Amino acid sequence: MIRNEATLARSARHEHALRSIEAGIEAGHPRTVVESALSLTDGVLALGDEQYRLDEFDKLLVLGGGKPAGQAAAALEDLLGDHLDGGLVVTDTPADTSRIDAVEGTHPLPSTANVEGTRRLLDWAEAATAGDLVLVVIGGGGSALLCAPADGVSLGPYRTVTDRLLESGATIDEINAVRKHLSAIKGGQLARALAPSTAVGLALSDVVGDPLDVIASGPTAPDPTRYDDALAVLDQYDIDAPDTVRAMLDRGANGERPETPTEGDAAVQHVRNHVLANNRTALDAAAAVCEDAGYRLAILSAGIEGEAREVGRVHAAIADSCMATGEPFEPPVALLSGGETTVTVRGEGRGGPNQEVALGAAIDLAAAGADGSADGGPVLASVDTDGIDGATDAAGALVDGATVTDRRAAQRALADNDAFTYLNDRDALVLTGPTGTNVNDLRVVLVGEP
Q1: CATH topology agreement for domains 5-26+280-447 and 29-278
Q2: Which residues pair with 273 in a beta bridge?
């Protein structure tokens, strides 16, 4: 999976870190998840305690969107076989499917292909009847890929406000509060279109805490946010929104446009939503590899948020303390964490949250003087499980105390949000290509020799 593994595996600890990352990504892959969560026996589809006798439905359809949607569609085709009557997903990583149309879109900013694919998906949803069973696959990236701007907003202004929100440091739920109210599908509106069919939501979560209304902007979940919340986000982050965007949100806040469905709304009562995989899925698999290699385990959290470079510094400080004093954990120890950090873009460089985590950590590891390739010092890997960190072709980075040789140069790179260039020049980037899944960020810090 890791294309440049030979370059990165400079010691046993580096290799262990790479193996654990791979295990985490594979555990959250849609094929792995579908095979473990769903079963089909004698025409009965089982999901947890729920069972669906397929011969009781007129049609069985698969709809959805997000980075994992292509691979999930392929896995569902294999499972359901001739029971499946068709469907459509919008994804940036299509898989080989024959019964389900896989529309290739773009991420993180939506394109015309995203809009056209989403309009087709809504046509499928609106044609579903009370006799149909619809499986709705959603996952990370779905907010951009399932893009159907509401009447009154064109794609250009929608892209502009999305881009400015992504660079503002706003959290994903804040960004989605805005996107839901500029959309014809988000915030429970796909559920509204699917009524009165029987709909089952299958989510691969890339959001801390797995809130169904935030994953892919909650197309099948009730929406707790209102137009006023969307406007408050624009004001809080001083977003210069296009006039048509601001005007639409103002009309909604004044009661001139319908709100998204809320809890208890009949539009979402016919949907049963399930989270099939999340960040903990990846963390547990990565931890198992570290434990097998002889490390003690310390899973710090699956819900870490905040400014990426500062999260990196905190991880470096904990690792340094373990190395120097045996506190809070005695080496050899694997420190693992997940979640979703953010980057406030102020510079002109390239990078992503996981690269800034890694570079922030590497600067402090260098200051501590521990060379992870030679003296048992900490080794830190930080990746986005989708294989694409920010708008780069790297999943993240693998660093140690020798990665940064010039702290001032590294700090300048961070100030310019140019972690990609700095880490690329030091052969520290982790390159996987798109993985077909997205269960948030994964960090592994190895301290000491097992």
Answers
A1: no
A2: 201
Query: Would you say 390 and 308 are in contact if contact means Cβ atoms under 8 Å apart?
Result: no
Instruction: Provide the edge-to-edge strand list for the sheet that holds 50-53.
Output: 38-41, 44-47, 50-53
Instruction: Give SS3 for 46.
Output: strand
Q: Do the Cβ atoms of 253 and 231 come closer than 8 Å?
A: yes
Q: Please, which residues bridge with residue 381 across strands? A: 398, 444
Cα–Cα–Cα angle for 222, 32, 38, nearest 5°? 60
pLDDT at position 374: 63
Distance CA 99, CA 361 (A): 46
Place of tokens 């005007």: 247
Q: What is the largest CA-CA distance in the chain?
A: 67
Mention every residue, 6+ apart, whose C-beta is less than 8 A from residue 51. Answer: 44, 45
Top-level class of domain 29-278: alpha beta
Distance, CA of 417 to CA of 420 (rounded, Å): 8
CA distance 312 to 356: 7
CA–CA dist 35, 41 (Å, integer): 13
Identify the DSSP state of 273: E
User: DSSP character for 426?
Assistant: T
What's the predicted TM-score (pTM) here?
0.91
CA angle 270, 271, 277 (to 5 degrees): 165
For the stretch 28-82, pLDDT in tens is: 999 999 999 999 999 999 999 999 999 999 999 999 999 999 999 999 999 999 9
Handedness of CA 429, 432, 434, 435 (dihedral sign): negative
With the C-alpha atoms ordered 334, 338, 70, 266, is the resulting torsion angle positive or negative? positive
Q: Which of 110, 114, 111, 80 is nearest to 97 (CA)?
A: 80
Residue 383: strand pairing partners: 396, 442
Tell me how far CA of residue 297 lies from CA of 230, 293, 334, in angstroms: 41, 11, 5
Among 57, 62, 180, CA closest to 121: 62
- List the domain boundaries for the chain: 5-26+280-447, 29-278
Does CATH number 3.40.1480.10 belong to domain 5-26+280-447? yes
What tokens does 433 get? Answer: 């290509």
Query: Given the DSSP bridges, would you call strands 38-41 and 441-447 parallel, antiparallel or unpaired?
Result: unpaired
